[in-house]
Structures are given as structure tokens and as C-alpha cells.
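2024-03-11 09:14:02 DEBUG pipeline.ingest accepted 1 chain
2024-03-11 09:14:02 DEBUG pipeline.ingest length=202
2024-03-11 09:14:03 DEBUG pipeline.predict start
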Amino acid sequence: MTTLRAVVLGCSLKKSPAPSSSELLGREVLAALADHDTDGEVVRIVDHTVRFGVSTDEGDGDEWPGIREKVLAADILVMATPIWMGQPSSVAKLVLERLDAELAETDDEGRMLTFGKVAAVAVVGNEDGAHHVTAELLQGLNDVGFSVAAGGSTYWVGEAMGKVDYNEAGPKPDTTGAATKTLAANAAHLARLLKDRQYPPS
């Protein structure tokens, strides 16, 4: 079986080595994907200089082009974000804005370079909003060419206004864990189907 490649874009507001619950969930997705012959890596966006903009390269030391290369080399993209005030993090929105440039990047047959790649989402927070955040991100990722598998998200939400983070809450195999396993199985399945049979040119 062909080994797939995944990249997790960690959209925490905290730079490494600060612990990040959203990155932890993203790493758990990678671990689950490994059961389906998929390897990968995590890129914490705030550890890099990523400029605001909607082009593939904003210049002036912009490190997005290198991250973009990893995204385009992957079969599966996972965006992992915390919830802030019911919204995806500002870092996640920055990533979506940079991915907007893919609308103008096409192959020789007019397909976006993201066609044939699968997107998934991992969300954590101490308040409601996981479904809203997931909807925003998956819709945006689909707009710029990514496909979404059934059950293409996993999340954990703690008590409203609580202080327990995902990385402090202990194992959750029957809830978040089950969703993560489904995400991994279906994302890898769809990625293999698309790798074998790319979308037709329109």
C-alpha cells in the first residue's frame, strides 16, 4: 500500500515550546493516520514569519512559501485550531487567507493544485463553538480545492468558562478519540481514491 503524506497546520496563538492543546489534538490525528499508512509532520504557524496577504509569497521574509510547499506535497491537510470567542483563531483565518491564492494556481488542465487533496479539521476549546469553527474552516478549505471526507473533523470542548485544557483533561477514547479514528480512516481512504483517480478537468 502506498504511504500517504499528511501535514498538520497548528494554529495556536502560542509559540513553541509552550504547550498547545490544539497541536496535541493535531498530533493525535497524525498518530491515528499512521494506522492507515500515512506519515506526516506538524507545523506551528506562529513559529514562522507568515505575512498577512492573499498571494503565494508576500515577500519581506515571508515563510509561507515553504509551508505552502509542504501543503502541496501532502495528500492530507489537517488544520488544528483553538476556539476564541466562538471563532477559529486569528492564525487559522490567516492560513485561510493565504490559501485563497490557490484559486489562481492551476495545473496544465486548469485544475487547482489542491484538487485531489483531502482536508480535515481538529478543534479544541473551553466553550461552545466547535461546530461553527469546523463549518467555517471546512467550507473555506473546500472553496480553495480541498475535498472533505465523511466525518472529516474531531473536536473537544470543555466546560464553558472553564480552565481545564484538552492536554489536561485525560484520555477521551469514546468521544474525541472515536471521532479522531473515524477522521483518520475516512481521510486516508478518500486520499487514496483521489490519488488513484484525480478529478477530471472542467
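2024-03-11 09:14:41 DEBUG pipeline.report The beta strands are 4-10, 38-44, 76-84, 87-88, 118-125, 147-157.
2024-03-11 09:14:41 DEBUG pipeline.predict end
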